[in-house]
Amino acid sequence: RKLERFKCQAVPAARVVPTLAEDVLQGFARRPRVLPPKYFYDALGSELFDQICDTPEYYPTRTEARLLDQSAHSIICQVKPEHIIELGSGTSRKTAHLFEACEANGLEPSYWPFDVCEEVLHAAAEALLEAHPWLSVQALIGDYSAGLAHLPQPAGRRLFVFLGGTIGNLTPEESIAFLSELRGLMREGDAFLLGADRTKAPRLLQAAYDDASGLTAEFNRNVLNVINRALRGDFNPHAFDHLALYNEALQRIEMYLVARHDQEVHLMALERRYGFLHGERILTEISRKFTAESLTAELRAARLNPIRHYQTEDQYFSLVLAQP
Ligand code: AVJ
């Protein structure tokens, strides 16, 4: 019976996205060299990210989960969704709060989790289907960064969800383009729930991205293993230090890998060698932090109207509900 409530389909890319090889060629031609953060998430990287979420320093996941638990009832009662569509759903652990609120209010929306990883989608659906006998799951396999044009468009009121503060991985320009594209799919009555991390004392931010157990450092270095595998490279991850800095002017955490000594790296699949000087940095991730004002301004720039702002008492994290 559980299987009857589970369907899975691929969402074709709406536009051509650069391959890993193209991203490396382009990113390594820049100074500092850069790598897109999406390559962190191979099987090991996803596992490491899960472990980071349980460190005492990394507050976003547990703060957002608590906030969602507190505000789910209010969100669900305002939107009364017939479909919940989640971009980058991962384990769907936090989204579970929304289904509990639906159940308590006699609503039975279907769930459309959208993620790159089919195995993760299966595992997430399994748990949700077990917990909610009324739920049907329409899993969507694909990359939301490749566009949303081919996302299935179920009839009825939809709640789009983008959690975790992942919006912060995008530059303001990329973010507004992404939010605008989402806005373009939305109809009257639809809503969008966005999770975003807030600005706070730099030492708290830096600790969150440089935990004492070294998990974030390992997560950061793992991107070099991903490149080695994909491009037959000989990066030695241990020849790079993990560095997390809060850039106050740009209100963002910057994660770097810093060469511990002069070295040359061979990427055989690209037929290229890259020299790194002692202390040279690769920018592997930005994670923007928002004020209440900068967050609503970004939504408005994408023609989305914030209708409710939920935040924790400590103002560590925000959930904003917006409408077209
Ligand atoms: C999953 C993108 C929200 O930016 O906080 C965690 C990724 N990087 N620790 C974030 C991450 C380092 C995370 N996001």
From TrEMBL:
The entry lists its GO molecular-function terms as: methyltransferase activity
Q: Which SUPFAM superfamilies match?
A: S-adenosyl-L-methionine-dependent methyltransferases (SSF53335)
Q: Which GO terms describe its biological process?
A: methylation
Provide an example Pfam family for this protein: Methyltransf_33
The name on file for this protein is Histidine-specific methyltransferase SAM-dependent domain-containing protein
InterPro entries referenced in this protein's UniProt entry, alphabetically: EgtD (IPR035094), EgtD_Methyltrsf_superfamily (IPR051128), MeTrfase_dom (IPR019257), MeTrfase_EgtD-like (IPR017804), SAM-dependent_MTases_sf (IPR029063)
The Histidine-specific methyltransferase SAM-dependent domain, residue ranges: 21-323
Q: Which residue ranges does UniProt annotate as crossing the membrane?
A: none
Name the PANTHER family on file: ERGOTHIONEINE BIOSYNTHESIS PROTEIN 1
Q: NCBIfam families, alphabetically?
A: egtD_ergothio
Q: Give the domain of life.
A: Bacteria
Q: Which UniProt keywords apply?
A: Methyltransferase, Transferase
Q: Which organism is it from?
A: Nitrococcus mobilis Nb-231
